[in-house]
Design brief:
mainly beta, about 40% strand, five-stranded antiparallel beta sheet
């Protein structure tokens, strides 16, 4: 037993000698570093947001509960560390953004920064102030990069293709947190590779930010014309520039405006009156009547104008009209001929007088158009009247006013036709009158067999 104790004493003594030898060694002693008070944990980004988490080390629960936590960030820069320290030292003008609306829970902090720029690198660090606001710790500076805007498109297809209209539907999906920064829409173009900025003729249909399933009733098309369509997402960056991301393109062709669209009312001139005003294809299709809008225009204009547009043939300063002819049917100022081509044109004053003299004008009949799709039902109520020829064929009309191609005798106005019903006399009739040319009316084309 004594022998063992002596050996143990020797071993301890030798260990002491070895320890002293290490202590006297000129090499530096290993340094055990304390963990950073705030350690970045993970980053998750979308195109416009970044969710950041950090781990607290050695921070009191009181400071976590009553102190302030947050993130400092700026566009990626080499001097981000000095910018963030400048803020910590009290410089309120430091060129960084202070985000402190995150949530501290337990020993973890999480915050989601919103309103960032897509495909952009940022420098950031976390900060932690104690409950007394006397101490502020910063984490190491790190970087993150937002993603591109990456929409997912599916099922985009066209249907109900007619002479002047089509229905297009599909799905556009994007990260839910990015929705509020984007607008979704459809671009329709007469040329391939359409964009929002450089096409000769485009139609832009737009939804708000939340919709994923998009459906568009596209109107004011030309018959027998190729159209390319593509869905898009647009967003605006902080410099005010609008950016667009497009889906692949799809093509469809509208139906031709054939002679069969005209109705033979046994008129002496042999002209045929179109089944519908310009822009609609048929009167009895509820979907067509509810969702397809007729063309409207100023007299002599060949474009579909809105009420906010100026009439190109009227000088507001001199209050005078440009002379474009007395009878414009079949000329370059005839919108019916410009869109339909062939033997289609505006009716003249004489054409309307012929219609009145040779046809029976029916009384208005209350008519309800009802179209159902899925869980939605659309209802439109109006009055429809029949204009019947002596052969039993007929066209329909309602209260719309339509231009003729004939200028009035004073050269200031143009003739237009409209349907009227006199309830006292219980009589329906078509009337002709004149109206200033800078009014917007519908067009009811005719097909003229004698037109060259």
């Amino acid at each position: 037993m004594l022998f063992l104790r002596n050996h143990l004493f020797v071993a301890v003594a030798m260990a002491a000698v070895l320890f002293n030898a290490c202590a006297d060694d000129s090499s530096p002693s290993p340094i055990i570093e304390e963990p950073d008070p705030i350690a970045p944990s993970k980053v998750s980004t979308t195109a416009f947001t970044a969710t950041l988490t950090a781990q607290y080390n050695g921070v009191s629960k009181v400071d976590i509960a009553l102190g302030k936590s947050g993130i400092l960030y700026c566009l990626k820069t080499d001097n981000a560390e000095s910018i963030f320290k400048s803020w910590r030292d009290g410089n309120e003008d430091a060129e960084c953004v202070v985000f402190n609306t995150g949530k501290a829970s337990g020993e973890e902090y999480e915050g989601t920064i919103v309103g960032l720029e897509p495909e952009t690198e940022y420098s950031y660090c976390y900060f932690m102030k104690n409950k007394d606001n006397t101490k502020c710790d910063l984490s190491d500076v790190s970087t993150f990069k937002t993603t591109p805007v990456q929409p997912r498109y599916s099922y985009f297809k066209s249907s109900r293709i007619k002479m002047f209209s089509a229905n297009i539907r599909g799905t556009v999906k994007i990260n839910e947190s990015d929705n509020e920064y984007c607008k979704k829409g459809l671009l329709l173009s007469e040329t391939e590779n359409g964009s929002l900025s450089n096409n000769i003729r485009t139609f832009k249909y737009e939804y708000g930010s939340e919709a994923e399933d998009l459906e568009f009733n596209v109107n004011y098309l030309k018959p027998e014309t190729d159209y390319w369509f593509r869905a898009y997402i647009t967003y605006t960056t902080q410099d005010g520039e609008e950016h667009a991301v497009y889906s692949p393109e799809t093509k469809f062709t509208t139906k031709p405006a054939t002679e069969e669209w005209g109705v033979n009312l046994a008129l002496p001139s042999g002209i045929l009156w179109a089944s519908c005003p310009l822009g609609r294809t048929e009167f009895d299709d509820p979907y067509d009547f509810i969702y397809v809008s007729p063309y409207t225009c100023y007299w002599g204009s060949t474009k579909r104008d809105s009420y906010s547009d100026l009439y190109e043939y009227y000088d507001t300063l001199s209050k005078t009209y440009t002379d474009i002819g007395y009878n414009i049917e079949g000329t370059q100022y005839d919108i019916a001929h410009a869109i339909l081509g062939g033997k289609w044109r505006l009716p003249t004053k004489q054409d309307v007088e012929e219609l009145i003299a040779n046809c029976t004008i029916g009384k208005p009949v209350p008519t309800e158009y009802r179209y159902s799709s899925g869980n939605m039902t659309s209802i439109y109520s109006t009055n429809i009247a029949v204009i019947a020829g002596s052969n039993g064929n007929y066209i329909k009309t309602w209260w719309g006013q339509t231009w003729t191609g004939t200028l009035s005798e004073d050269g200031m106005c143009a003739y237009y036709a409209f349907y009227r019903y006199d309830s006292e006399e219980d009589r329906a009739f078509i009337e002709l009158d004149t109206l200033a040319r800078n009014n917007i009316l519908q067009i009811h084309p005719v097909w003229d067999p004698k037109m060259q």
